[in-house]
């Protein structure tokens, strides 16, 4: 378990960190945002890769799946080791792994190289997310020992989902207006990642480093509430499947079906979706869990329906409205799922129960989008999207009926 005291631990080394817990909090928040933003940089660039390397939409989903696989593997193999190795060390390593992925993206000329770069990005993100969130909470508690953790949770949410939205916005604009559309964004983020890693090195450690026998992260299911637990996992599956749609194939839909090839527009669409998800998580964070679930399922369902309709009537405004609504639903639905699992599990097994929830979510991020990508090879995009949306809605409504049942 992480150290939860308000004083910084003695790590056995002399203090050489000029950054205190207060400024360090913002250093970690900025590094978190940069790392998450880098993970979505390729979103508006996939169409350009398709044009350069002449591959199908299904290959786009395979590249996207590589990222999700990297995240899952890293979450379960390394996402928890900062509890005893130290937050700072793991976070710096994760940032350097993403920097290595950025270098690979810059020099990549083949699909296998892109696959490895996306896999490496996922590994870095899997190491980073839980570590950075815990680091923020501990630094906040150290700097403001008598304050609640609401501020730390708010900043973590903004850095996480906000970063996911900033990445495609920046890369889309650079791809549209700067030279080297497939290299400039990665070069910019390479610099930002290296600067972030250097800055994190000056932040004080918040856990006492100790020797411990390594084991992968375990997954546990609360025995007395399995039906609700699996329903929460199904809700996370549906939310991440919708998220995967907007971070993999949606830019291609905009370019082909809507006949709008602007990279800046593709990046802006992803930014709107993630921005809506972050905003609703913040806006509804104090609402009851059942209200979050109901609002999330309804809003995401309406959003998916509108996005699908926009493909049939060829309407960008409808697509944007649907994307924002779907993003808003994703954010609050996943927040409700996390709250459900946290309430169902005991404090000693909460981390393991949440690991299972994230596993369900990342399976949702990979499998439905892979199926959608394969379907587009045989039927028109709009019909493939119709089937995808219908399946996601059925899963989310079925999960909701169980979760909202007294």
TrEMBL record:
The keyword ATP-binding does not apply. PROSITE patterns: MFS. This is Putative MFS family arabinose efflux permease. GO terms for molecular function: transmembrane transporter activity. It comes from the Bacteria. The keyword Transmembrane applies. The chain crosses the membrane at residues 25-49, 55-78, 90-109, 115-136, 157-178, 184-208, 229-253, 265-284, 293-313, 319-344, 356-379, 385-404. Residues 23-406 form the Major facilitator superfamily (MFS) profile domain. Keywords: Cell membrane, Membrane, Transmembrane, Transmembrane helix, Transport. It is found in: Cell membrane. InterPro entries: MFS (IPR011701), MFS_dom (IPR020846), MFS_trans_sf (IPR036259), MFS_Transporters (IPR050171). GO terms for cellular component: plasma membrane. It is a multi-pass membrane protein. Coiled coil: none annotated.
């Amino acid at each position: 378990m992480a150290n939860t005291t308000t004083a910084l631990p003695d790590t056995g080394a002399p203090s050489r960190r000029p950054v205190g817990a207060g400024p360090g909090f913002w250093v970690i928040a900025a590094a978190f945002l940069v790392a998450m933003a880098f993970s979505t940089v390729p979103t508006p660039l996939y169409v350009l890769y398709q044009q350069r390397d002449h591959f199908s939409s299904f290959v786009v989903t395979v590249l996207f799946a590589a990222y999700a696989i990297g995240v899952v593997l890293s979450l379960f193999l390394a996402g928890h080791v900062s509890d005893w190795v130290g937050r700072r060390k793991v976070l710096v390593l994760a940032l350097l792994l993403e920097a290595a992925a950025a270098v690979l993206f810059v020099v990549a000329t083949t699909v296998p190289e892109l696959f490895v770069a996306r896999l490496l990005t996922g590994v870095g993100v899997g190491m980073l997310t839980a570590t950075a969130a815990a680091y923020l909470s501990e630094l906040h508690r150290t700097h403001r020992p008598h304050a609640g953790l609401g501020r730390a949770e708010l900043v973590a949410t903004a850095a996480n989902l906000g970063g996911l939205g900033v990445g495609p916005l920046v890369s889309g604009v650079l791809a549209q207006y700067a030279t080297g559309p497939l290299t400039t964004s990665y070069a910019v983020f390479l610099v930002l990642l290296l600067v972030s890693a250097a800055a994190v090195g000056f932040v004080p450690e918040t856990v006492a480093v100790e020797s411990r026998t390594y084991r992968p992260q375990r997954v546990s299911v609360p025995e007395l509430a399995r039906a609700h637990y699996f329903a929460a996992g199904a809700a996370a599956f549906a939310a991440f499947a919708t998220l995967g749609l907007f971070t993999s194939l949606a830019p291609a839909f905009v370019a082909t079906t809507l006949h709008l090839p602007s990279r800046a527009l593709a990046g802006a669409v992803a930014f709107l979706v993630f921005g809506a998800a972050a905003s609703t998580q913040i806006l509804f964070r104090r609402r009851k869990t059942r209200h979050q679930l109901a609002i999330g399922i309804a809003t995401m369902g309406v959003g998916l329906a509108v996005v699908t309709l926009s493909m049939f009537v060829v309407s960008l405004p409808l697509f944007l409205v649907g994307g924002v609504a779907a993003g808003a639903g994703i954010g609050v639905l996943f927040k409700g799922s996390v709250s459900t699992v946290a309430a169902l599990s005991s404090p000693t097994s909460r981390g393991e129960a949440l690991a299972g929830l994230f596993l369900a979510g990342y399976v949702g991020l990979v499998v439905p989008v892979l199926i959608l990508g394969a379907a587009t090879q045989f039927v028109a995009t709009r019909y493939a999207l119709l089937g995808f949306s219908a399946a996601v809605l059925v899963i989310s409504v079925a999960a909701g009926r169980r979760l909202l049942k007294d």
